[in-house]
User: What shape does this take?
Amino acid sequence: MLEKKVNAVVIGGGSAGMAAALSIAEKGYQVAIIEREDTLGGILLQCIHNGFGLQEFKQELTGPEYAQRFEDFVHKNRKINIFLETTAVDITQNDNGTRVVNTYSKKHGVILFSADAVVLAMGCRERNRGNIAIAGTRPAGIFTAGLAQRLLNIDGFIPGKKVVIIGSGDIGLIMARRLTWVGTEVLGVVEIQPFPSGLTRNIVQCLNDFSIPLYLNHVVSRIYGKERVTKVRITPITQDGKIDEKKSFQIACDTILLSVGLIPDMELAKNAGVRINHDTNGPYVNADLMTSQEGIFACGNALHVHDIVDYVTEEARRCGSYVHDYIQGGRVKKQGNVIPGANIKYILPNHYVTHRNNRLYCRPMIVKNNAELFIKINKKFVLQKKLRHIQPSEMISIDLEKDVFKNIQKDQNHTLEVSIR
Amino acid sequence: MKEDCFDVAVIGAGVSGAAIARKLSLYRLKVTLIEKCEDVSFGVSKANSGIIHAGFHHKPATLKSRLEIEGNLMFEKFQQELQFPFKRVGILVAAFSYEEMKTVEKLYQQGIENNVPLIEICNRERLLELEPKLNSDVSGGLYAPTGGIIEPYRYVFALVESAMKNGVKLFTDFKVIRAGYSGGQYTITSAKGRSLKAKYVINAGGLYADEISSLFKAEKYKIFPRKGEEYLLERNSSGFPNHVIFPVPIKNSKGTLVIPTVEGTMMIGPTAEEIKDKEDVATTPENLEKVFSLAMKMIPSISKREIITSFAGLRPAMEGNDFYIDISKKASHFIQVAGIQSPGLTASPAIAEYVKDLLKKDGLKLVEKRDYDPFLKGAMVVRGRTPEEADKLIKKDSAYGNIVCRCENVSEAEVTEAIEKGHTTMDGIKFYTRAGMGKCQGGFCTYKILHLINQKAGISINKITKRGGRSTIVYDTLSDKNIK
Ligand SMILES: Cc1cc2nc3c(=O)[nH]c(=O)nc-3n(C[C@H](O)[C@H](O)[C@H](O)COP(=O)(O)OP(=O)(O)OC[C@H]3O[C@@H](n4cnc5c(N)ncnc54)[C@H](O)[C@@H]3O)c2cc1C
Ligand SMILES: Cc1cc2nc3c(=O)[nH]c(=O)nc-3n(C[C@H](O)[C@H](O)[C@H](O)COP(=O)(O)OP(=O)(O)OC[C@H]3O[C@@H](n4cnc5c(N)ncnc54)[C@H](O)[C@@H]3O)c2cc1C
Assistant: This one.
């Protein structure tokens, strides 16, 4: 059994893990990246379409290209040790307070890493059929969209011949186009909401360009088939949200793809006692992206699900600099609470500080043009911002300069509320 | 073609057939176990509540009640020999009114008559002390410490493995469709044209026992499928109880239960619904609502958020609602093991004893083997080990260090072992190792397992199935011909 001592352990070598590790190492600290797969890169490696890096590199890259750039930086950095084919299975604490990450490695057996700080960058998993409880049988041929993407783009396996996609998330939309290109018939995308949950660009380029029907306000109400999927029943939803059984129709298909959302992968963290935020399904974090457990930080899709990788990189880099401060002995001083107001699904982090700038990320619950964003502290307006277009699939970032807090009584409790109109 | 000739053929590799085959492997006999599915335990025995009942639910006069008690008491020995997950966590019945407490008293009486050990009636305080998560409105209830929980498929896999170790020949993908009797022997033919001969036949065909009985020109009866839907909740669920929690039973059903599993997940269910189609294992949103509201009445902290998946199983019920285990009066040397609904799992060790006695009565000579070995090593798993133990395991075989299923921490070595033991479908591997059984339901491990089956069993990717037949996972592999 190997025991290693480092300043920080980063669990997960996707875009979040790589950016966090780089930012910690740049300040001279020893970092270990733990990655279960045999390469770095994470989910980016299966996203062979382009659209990555517009903010970070001012260029349109594919997922693997974006990952490659960071991989090169990481490999060059001598403060970073990379442990591939190594899975973190447990996070515990020593008597002196340092964290211990228990890992299984194919090559080295068990490695116990002790560190002052741990960064959770394990990414997310996909919501599956069990999470949305679709009635019917349980035949073969039901995939989450990301799994289908992985099977096709990395393994070279075609999931089926005739596909119905449930949910209009971006991965589902991108897979509609991808499957059409390999000769699979995509018979429709079924979305329970009155609006698509993916980006408009993807609706146009992945569905409209291929004449794939989008059934808004519809659900797949039943799955049929004993061995393999044979058909689905699709049912419209009336304006008052009821199921309109009589208008149901069926589509014969052999495959179903589910693109019904992503959830931060938090099992490891939960076992370590990290408090979970039910709005994001990720951890609660303070202004320094530290979870309820001292010395355990989170970023990327493990913290909340991001639609754009550039934001993941930004957040992870910032997380790395907070980790650096923490290792140096810095602790967050007095913090205010951050809470979601009207039309906001969630806002992160859950706290803010007044002595520096704060970046907040939030997700709206509504689709709207020319919306307005309001920020109140202790019910008093401090900031107002115009937003040209908002929709739930697009995360909103807010930069709060520390000037905003000029007039706040530093010793008082304060709460910052963000809402949208 | 020369046909294999056996002393006994057991039809159906569910828990009944598997327990019988293993029992018979103790004797100097040529025994075969025949199963229509691609793997064993793919019938009723894979989709149930996994409870080892204590034995107070059924009237003393029934056969099932007698075998339930006898079976229950045999589980320690079976577990020692076979190493499957089993825990005697105890059963509680929670009553919520004066009337329900009256029924509890009747159950207690019935338990005493059935000789259920250590059973007790509890007042409210005692019950809440045993199970603090119970609704505090509870009036009182029953406590039966001998009740337990098992992983049903792993139990069946172990029975079959042990039987095979002691000489039983297993045929899977062998659906019996024809049978003839001449010269003191049955000729049994499968849908794919294979055939074998046997002097004695045991019909443990679960839902299809009635059809098998007709094939052999034995008694005519009908099996009525009664559906039960169950919901599986994640590990560390907020409502996870210390015991199996039953409501007070109504009529023919034991009601909706809250069940802790040996592996730390939790189940709630089952429903009970008479249906016609023996393959109809669909679930419905209405039942989801019903099951949750009933379960949450008992344990309010149960949350729908924590559902991983749902499934349904069909109880093979018969008129009279008792087990029908007997020597056929019409077909020679033919034993019926039918109507094995709940508590079939619990009774299985005793069913095997009972059937062995029937065979003896019907003239089969039973001589014990000298070299019978009841013990199995048990599958090696990496999860739940101390770092020192895990390290040793990985140093011995590095495949233990490659975690394939991240939700349940299942390693490549465990999946490989399953494949080498003949479990080459996705479901077979799932039931054997738990890979794919956790929160992501295969989202992360499906491709890894496909590759492993392909490498270790040499099955081409587009031929790998979920559970045999036409349940293929992927349609094709990418090649130039697919690129448009
Ligand atoms: C399918 C999909 C399509 C997307 N498309 C776009 C797009 O078109 N444009 C865009 O800008 N953004 C897109 N995104 C968003 C963005 O790319 C991702 O949000 C981002 O890459 C996530 O990075 P991450 O590091 O947080 O997670 P991941 O990339 O998922 O990395 C997590 C890593 O942690 C490892 N890991 C997990 N658990 C453990 C453990 N216990 N031990 C060791 N290692 C572990 C995993 O193997 C993985 O490598 C997409 C996201 C997805 C999921
Ligand atoms: C929802 C539910 C919950 C339950 N909960 C419990 C519980 O908690 N505790 C308990 O003790 N019991 C429980 N039971 C009952 C228990 O599951 C059954 O009694 C038991 O599994 C029956 O086993 P079996 O071997 O008789 O039938 P099966 O497992 O169905 O085995 C019969 C086998 O025969 C095969 N077969 C059929 N026809 C042919 C043919 N022509 N040729 C070859 N093979 C054939 C089938 O494929 C099948 O594998 C429950 C049942 C259900 C449905």
Remarks:
- The mean pLDDT of chain A is 94.
